[in-house]
Amino acid sequence: MKLIHISRRVFLFSLFALCLSVLTPGQLAIAEDTFAMWGDLNRQTAIYNAGEEMVFTVKLLKNDQPVAGYTLKWERTGDDGIKQNGQAVSNENGIQIVTSTQDPGFVRIYVTATDPDGQKVMTTIKGKDKPVFFDGGACVAPDKLQGIAEPDDFDAFWQKQKQQLASVPMKVLEMNMVKENDTVIAYDMKIACAGGMPVSGYLVMPKDAKARSLAAEVNFHGYGVRSANYNLGRGSNQIYFNINAHGIENGQPKDYYTQLQKGKLRGYGFSMEENADPQTTYFNGMYMRVMRALEYVKSLPAWNGKNLKATGGSQGGLQALVAAGLDTDVSECSAWSPWCCDFGRTELKRMVGGWYVKYTPALLYFDPINLVKRANPNCQLFIVANLGDYVCPPSGVWIAYNNFPGPKTIETRQGCEHGYTMKNYPKFIVTTKTDN
User: Fold this and answer.
1) For the chain, how long is the longest CA-to-CA vector?
2) How far, in Å, are 56, 233, 238, 388 from residue 201 at the CA level?
3) Contact 363, 307 (CB under 8 A)
4) Degrees (nearest 5) of the Cα angle 248, 173, 316?
5) Percent of the chain having pLDDT more than 90?
6) 154-432: which CATH topology?
7) CATH code 3.40.50.1820 region(s) in the chain
8) 31 in helix, strand or coil?
9) What tens digit of pLDDT does each residue of 341-389 get?
10) From CA 333, how far away is CA 317, in angstroms rounded?
């Protein structure tokens, strides 16, 4: 790998958070120096040929302007197992980091900065101080990526799970109105389900909707323990069902969810013991609730019988993909940086961060990259992959995209992690149409 400086760049993008000094009597608030990092590739797409040079331009910004004289330290890792690092002194044009890979997969570039005195350059993100950074990447032949082969009895397993779900009659256990206006009403719902817990969420829809008049959206949550939520506006012209991930009570005091997170639901989904058996893994009950939520929405007289959307981000994106894979009535799926795509990534030596569910063969039954193969070939997919996200690595997200049979679009975002979005991030979009 080589490291050189560039001479010119046309575009300047930045991420900055305005931090004001503390006011004392008689003083005006003075803006403190605010640092950020911004990076991009030397072309619009992040997809390269094997062995082709990937040229990253990275700039350190102070108060939204590029600055010189700081040391930018970088590390290159990759799905190819190669690790390299280096450093260079910044100038107004930034630095260039040049790398390549021969294998299908992703390369990750992580950059931090130190000032002329050798101190780490810091920033504030979501109220927390952390070193300023760039976290991005590029790839070779992502369309060639695949996961570990699915079990031979994959379809038979899910047929049995659906039979188990059907053995529990779909019954509304609770339906309590929580809010309404002149045209829209919201209900706190509980619906009987297999897997040990009910479906629990908020149903929002127009009042007095005519039969078969409304599209429907089921929205799923990211990782954590929290109530479902509702917004009357989301149900102004559709059926909107937002469910919590666990079948727990909605609308409770914060302490209720805190105690569950510290107790019964602590680290849910991560137990190696539970994940050794497809019947005992937490994902089994979660996926049962996904199927039953869709089934309930489809039973409503107001559903038009054709437009059914599954949406969510992170763990919610996982559930949205699962919804499309397990229910062919899902006509549209939107998944931001979906979690748990490619459970077997570590077995295949692909990059992953420090927070992930460790592989067991039983988890292959629950891997969304396998389930999405069963989606309706007319179902439309929109999926987002962040090139610096190693909670939900872009390789797994791309495999889910590869395996989805319907018309699909993937938006890939440079410089974005799972919990961080680089301001004015460069993106590229790939769309695949089908003949269905």
Assistant:
1) 75
2) 45, 16, 16, 32
3) no
4) 40
5) 89
6) Rossmann fold (3.40.50)
7) 154-432
8) strand
9) 999 999 999 999 999 999 999 999 999 999 999 999 999 999 999 999 9
10) 9
Q: How many residues does the chain have?
A: 436
pLDDT value at position 1? 34
Helix (H, G, I), strand (E, B) or coil at 159: helix
pLDDT at 303 over 70: yes
Tokens at 8, concatenated: 């010119």
3 state DSSP class of 362: helix
Tokens encoding 303: 């559903």
How many other C-beta atoms are found inside a 10 Å radius of the C-beta of residue 352?
17
Q: What is the DSSP letter of 219?
A: E
Sheet holding 133-140, edge to edge: 47-48, 133-140, 105-114, 71-78, 84-89
Q: Smallest Cα–Cα separation from 37: which of 112, 95, 118?
A: 112
CB 402, CB 394: distance < 8 Å: no
Residue type, 246: H
Task: Kindly give the interhelix angle for 154-166 and 282-299, rounded to the nearest 10 degrees.
Answer: 60
Task: Enumerate helices (H) and strands (E) in the chain, giving the number of each.
Answer: 6, 22
> For residue 73, which phi and psi values (nearest 5 degrees)?
-105, 130
CA–CA separation, 179 and 338 (whole Å) = 31
Quick one: CA dihedral 403, 404, 407, 411, positive or negative?
negative
> Would you place residue 128 in the very low, low, confident or very high pLDDT band (cuts 50, 70, 90)?
confident
Find out whether 29 and 21 touch, Cβ atoms under 8 Å: yes
Indicate whether 16 pLDDT > 50: no
- β-strand pairing of 332-336 with 303-313: parallel
Strand partners of residue 373:
none
The per-residue pLDDT for range 25-70, each reduced to its tens digit, is: 333 333 456 899 999 999 999 999 999 999 999 999 998 899 999 9
Task: Quote the pLDDT of residue 33.
Answer: 67
Token digits of residue 360 = 């067991």
Ranges in the chain annotated CATH 2.60.40.1930? 2-144
Q: Are 77 and 83 in contact (CB under 8 A)?
A: yes
Amino acid residing at 350: R
Closest CA to 245 of 220, 218, 266: 220
Note the pLDDT tens digit of each residue in 181-222. 999 999 999 999 999 999 999 999 999 999 999 999 999 999
CATH class of 2-144: mainly beta
Give the model's pLDDT for residue 21.
30
- Say what the pLDDT of residue 248 is: 98
